[in-house]
């Protein structure tokens, strides 16, 4: 049975002190008896401090924005999944379009990262989505299917059921131009049917698929009430506790 998930990706924003304050504001207003899951995803440097602020909450979890796929070793500047796990991280964003674009991460390396997360019991939040050019030249469906195939389809069905997929059209990220509920639902349905074809009904029904790209309090409800949309990956609006709480309420 799927439930709603609302994840806040803070990206490279806030100092540790500001991050703790933001987490505390979110914790203070959230409804603990709710069946929704909320994930806060601060920069690496804030993980411990933010985790401390989440202790009193039952449905807010800690996430990281990236990881490396090796467990340890001479990989200067990288952070492994065991390190994240030791800090209380439960979710890791893999293959955000900003990492694909600015750090040239390809599906092959992302597949390794997905594997590393699952090996240590963390949930990957695997991002896919097309650029504006790919949408306009009609290659977007192929692009998204390829990202899913190359990044995820090495997994067996039980493992895939532990992955969260996030559909984030690049043209909607940080632009204020959100996909229409119909456009988003179309891709979510397609992704789910693609998973069904490759695996089975049980797996496609179990996988959570989030939408991301300029989700705001006023657009959140309609997007998240689409049949195949299981929640949102929120960037900009997650940096404001009132907006983020309004999105959680809308779910
Ligand atoms: P946005 O970012 O909500 O600011 O568009 C979403 C994301 O990149 O995850």
Short description:
The chain has twelve helices and eight strands. It has helices at 16-29, 47-53, 81-86, 97-102, 107-119, 132-136, 140-152, 157-160, 181-198, 201-206, 217-224, 241-250, and strands at 5-9, 37-41, 60-64, 89-94, 123-128, 164-167, 208-212, 231-234. Strand 3, helix 3 and strand 4 (89-94) form a beta-alpha-beta unit.
Could you characterize what this model shows?
This protein has 251 residues and is α/β, with parallel strands linked by helices. Helix content is 44%, strand content 16%. The chain has helices spanning 16-29, 47-53, 81-86, 97-102, 107-119, 132-136, 140-152, 157-160, 181-198, 201-206, 217-224, 241-250, and strands spanning 5-9, 37-41, 60-64, 89-94, 123-128, 164-167, 208-212, 231-234. The chain has an eight-stranded parallel β-barrel, surrounded by six helices. Strand 1 (5-9), helix 1 (16-29) and strand 2 (37-41) form a beta-alpha-beta unit. It is globular. 2-phosphoglycolic acid binds at residues 9, 168, 173-174, 212-215, 233-237.
Comma- or semicolon-separated keywords:
251 residues, alpha/beta
Q: How does the helix and strand content classify structurally?
A: alpha/beta
Into which percent range does the helicity of residues fall?
40-55%
- The helix/strand series, from N terminus to C terminus, equals EHEHEHEHHEHHHEHHEHEH
Q: How many beta-strand runs?
A: 8
Rough outline? globular
Could you tell me how far the N terminus lies from the C terminus, measured between alpha carbons in angstroms?
16 Å
| Poorly predicted ranges | none
What summary fits the major beta sheet? 8 strands, parallel, barrel
Provide the list of bound ligands, each named once. Answer: 2-phosphoglycolic acid
Number of helices: 12
**What is Rg?**
17 Å
Percent strand equals 15-25%
- Order of strands across the biggest sheet? 1-2-3-4-5-6-7-8
Mean pLDDT: 96
């Amino acid at each position: 049975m799927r439930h709603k998930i609302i994840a806040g990706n803070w990206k490279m924003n806030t100092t540790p002190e500001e991050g703790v304050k933001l987490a505390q504001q979110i914790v203070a207003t959230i409804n603990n008896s709710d069946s929704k899951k909320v994930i806060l995803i601060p920069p690496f440097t804030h993980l411990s401090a933010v985790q401390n602020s989440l202790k009193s909450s039952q449905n807010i979890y800690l996430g990281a924005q990236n990881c490396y796929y090796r467990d340890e070793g001479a990989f200067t500047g990288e952070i492994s999944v065991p390190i994240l796990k030791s800090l209380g991280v439960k979710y890791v964003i893999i293959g955000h379009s900003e990492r694909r674009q600015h750090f040239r991460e390809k599906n092959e390396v992302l597949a390794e990262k997905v594997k590393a997360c699952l090996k240590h019991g963390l949930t990957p939040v695997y991002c896919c989505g097309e650029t504006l050019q790919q949408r306009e030249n009609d290659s977007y469906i192929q692009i998204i299917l390829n990202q899913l195939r190359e990044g995820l389809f090495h997994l067996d069905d039980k493992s895939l059921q532990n992955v969260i997929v996030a559909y984030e059209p690049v043209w909607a990220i940080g632009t204020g131009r959100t996909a229409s509920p119909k456009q988003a639902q179309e891709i979510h349905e397609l992704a789910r049917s693609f998973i069904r074809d490759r695996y089975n009904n049980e797996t496609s029904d179990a996988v959570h698929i989030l939408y991301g790209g300029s989700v705001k309090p006023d657009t959140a409800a309609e997007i998240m009430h689409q049949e195949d949309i299981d929640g949102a990956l929120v960037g900009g609006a997650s940096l404001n506790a009132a907006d983020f709480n309004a999105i959680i309420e809308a779910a």
